[in-house]
């Protein structure tokens, strides 16, 4: 039912609407910013030039005839010497969360990282109060590796970031 495919230019309007959603961005480590369409066009152009160290995939729900694009999952900053990368994910609308797409997309991206790209380690940071995301990451094999104290300023307050990682041997 769910598939990953590479991000396309036509996906930008949906992603831009997600990035303008304060409630969604509140669950990410990154700060909320007002992001116009041109900025996301430039962001996509920059991705096309950095495919050597970034993988951006759309999460698609094939059972939805309207708006099958439901999320975005990324392996960013691939370091080909240490063979590690950072994972980011978002399911764009609340109605599509809790339906298994996040678990699928993280597992599929780990398979790509370890079985296709030969990476050794995938890591991420997650807000300490994002219990659903931490649950998904632990379920697929990520381990908590430390706390980055008050590393994120979110919605007017400081929040700890939990650093998590998974090695190819854990996978
Ligand atoms: C976090 C996110 C990627 C998870 O994807 P999803 O498709 O909603 O997750 P799934 O449906 O695959 O799985 C959710 C799991 O979390 C569990 N869960 C939900 N709320 C929870 C909570 N408050 N505490 C603990 N576990 C919770 C569910 O029971 C389910 O676990 P199970 O499969 O073992 O029953 C998605 O909700 C999302 O994009 N959220 C907003 C952005 C975000 O937080 N991104 C991650 C930033 S690090």
Automatic annotation (TrEMBL):
Transmembrane segments: none
Residue span(s) of domain N-acetyltransferase: 2-166
Domain of life, source organism: Bacteria
Record flagged with keyword Transferase: yes
GO-annotated molecular function: acyltransferase activity, transferring groups other than amino-acyl groups
PROSITE patterns, alphabetized: GNAT
Keyword Cell inner membrane: no
Keywords carried by this UniProt record: Transferase
Gene3D superfamilies reported in the protein's UniProt record: 3.40.630.30
Protein name: UDP-4-amino-4, 6-dideoxy-N-acetyl-beta-L-altrosamine N-acetyltransferase
């Amino acid at each position: 039912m769910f598939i990953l495919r590479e991000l396309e230019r036509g996906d930008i309007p949906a992603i831009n609407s997600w990035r303008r959603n304060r409630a969604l961005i509140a669950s990410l480590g990154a700060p909320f910013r007002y992001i116009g369409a041109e900025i996301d066009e430039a962001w996509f152009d920059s991705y096309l030039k950095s495919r050597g160290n970034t993988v951006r995939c759309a999460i698609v729900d094939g059972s939805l005839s309207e708006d099958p694009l439901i999320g975005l999952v990324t392996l960013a900053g691939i370091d080909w010497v240490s063979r590690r990368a950072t994972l980011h994910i978002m399911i764009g609308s609340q109605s599509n969360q809790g339906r298994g797409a996040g678990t699928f997309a993280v597992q599929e991206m780990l398979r790509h990282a370890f079985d296709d790209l030969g990476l050794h380690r995938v890591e991420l940071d997650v807000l300490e109060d994002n219990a659903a995301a931490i649950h998904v990451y632990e379920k697929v094999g990520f381990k908590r590796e430390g706390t980055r104290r008050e590393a994120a300023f979110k919605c007017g307050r400081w929040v700890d970031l939990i650093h998590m990682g998974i090695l190819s041997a854990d996978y």
